[in-house]
Amino acid sequence: MKMKIRLSDRTKRRLGGAAAILFALWVGFVGYIYRAMRQPPEVFGHVMARMPMPAYFLFPFETMWTHARRGTIQAGDIAPSLTVKKLEDKSPIELGSLWAERPVVLVFGSYT
Q1: Range(s) of the domain holding residue 52
Q2: What is the pLDDT of residues 21-80, one digit of tens each?
Q3: For residue 110, is it left (φ>0), alpha (ψ between -120 and 50) or beta?
Q4: Alpha carbon distance 97, 112 (integer Å)
C-alpha cells in the first residue's frame, strides 16, 4: 500500500524558495571556482587547498578547468617565444631564434 503525501501550498513555496537559494549558492560557488581557475597557479592552488572534499562531487571541475585553461592560441597561430634550457649544458635558449631557421617541434609529457 502506497502512502501519498500531500504538501500544502505554503510548504511547496518554502521548498521552492529553499531550492532557489541552494541553486543560487551553487552558481555563486561555481563562479568563484571558475574565477580562481583563471588565476596564476599559486592563487588557484591556495583556493583548492581549502576546498572541502564533498565539493569535488558537487561541481563540474574537469569541464570548468578545460574551459578556464584553454588559452587564446588557435591552430595556425605563431607560437609565443619562450626561453628554455638546453639538455646538454643547461644554457638558456630563446625558442623564437630557433624557428627563424627551421621548424621546431615541442613535445611535452612524461616518459616515465
Answers
A1: 9-68
A2: 999 998 998 888 888 888 888 888 888 888 888 888 888 888 888 887 777 778 888 777
A3: beta
A4: 30
